[in-house]
Write a structure and sequence with these properties.
- It is a single chain.
- By secondary structure, the chain is of the alpha+beta class.
- It folds into three domains: 4-81 and 144-196, 2-Layer Sandwich (Gyrase A, domain 2), CATH 3.30.1360.170; 90-138, no CATH class; 202-243, no CATH class.
- Helices cover 43% and strands 12% of the residues.
- The chain contains eleven helices and four strands.
- It has helices spanning 18-28, 37-47, 69-73, 99-102, 105-127, 132-135, 153-163, 170-186, 188-191, 197-201, 222-231; strands at residues 4-11, 57-65, 79-82, 144-152.
- It has a four-stranded antiparallel β-sheet.
- The longest helix is centred in the middle third of the chain and has 23 residues, at 105-127.
Length: 243
């Protein structure tokens, strides 16, 4: 599956280490001074006290299909700049071909024919004077598009938690895995401990729709945990709230 991800920049205010900066910011909010920087960072990531992480910014150059582009845009606490199908040539953009298609020769042949025909019709519309804006309606979802995508570390953790799940689309999973690889290279102290949200939370919110091929089948589901509470007579409504 021919997608591309490249880390363009990674920004920590003051250009210091992420651990040092996050600990410094956390102490402003009242975190005990005697805690080491590493202990503070671990506490923040593990307990999701993560407003401090919003100051750390990543910018990626991403090439994906038009099909999953709307899924990327669902992550609204980030900045997106996209390649335009109105003002750029689409004929040579290329396609994303799913791995399941490439494994079977007959599937790949049919896939290529359909894509070529779509681009051919697009070019014919352009030849007869149809604008790019109108002609693009016929372009295939497999057409590659490109984004410059900036996101803070807190939102990136949320993105990875959702998109590394085995239920995410294969293309989205592959993109998320590449993003995680870069994040671990430049900021391992945070992202070495990040995976799908079931792993991050220690409980899987997918419940009964979690498939058998889950990457972390040992993690209990949210529904299982709640059922244990109810059996013990400790539901949320019955528990005492302490201030």
């Amino acid at each position: 599956m021919d997608i591309k991800v490249k880390l363009l920049d990674y920004y920590v205010p003051g250009r210091t280490s992420a651990t040092e900066f996050i600990a410094k910011v956390a102490r402003i909010s009242g975190v005990p001074e005697e805690l080491k920087d590493e202990e503070i960072l671990e506490m923040i990531v593990e307990n999701d006290y993560s407003s401090c992480l919003e100051h750390i910014i990543f910018t990626f150059d991403i090439t994906i299909s038009k099909l999953i582009a709307p899924e990327l845009l669902e992550h609204r606490i980030s900045s997106h700049t996209a390649k335009s199908t109105r003002f750029t040539r689409n004929r040579d953009a290329g396609y994303v071909v799913p791995d399941a298609i490439t494994k079977k020769k007959e599937f790949l042949q049919l896939y290529q024919i359909a894509l070529d025909q779509s681009i051919k019709f697009y070019e014919e519309l352009r030849h007869y004077g149809v604008s790019r804006e109108m002609g693009r309606y016929i372009l295939p979802m497999a057409l590659k598009t490109r984004y410059i995508w900036s996101i803070n570390a807190r939102s990136l953790i949320n993105f990875l938690g959702l998109r590394l799940c085995c239920r995410a689309s294969p293309e989205m999973q592959k993109m998320a895995r590449e993003i995680l690889r870069y994040a671990r290279e430049v900021c391992p102290e945070i992202f070495n401990h990040i995976e799908c949200r079931g792993y991050n939370l220690g409980v899987c919110p997918e419940n009964e729709v979690r498939p058998k091929f889950c990457y972390h089948p040992e993690i209990p589901t949210k529904k299982e945990i709640k059922e244990r509470w109810l059996k013990k007579g400790k539901s949320i409504l019955e528990s005492e709230v302490r201030f």
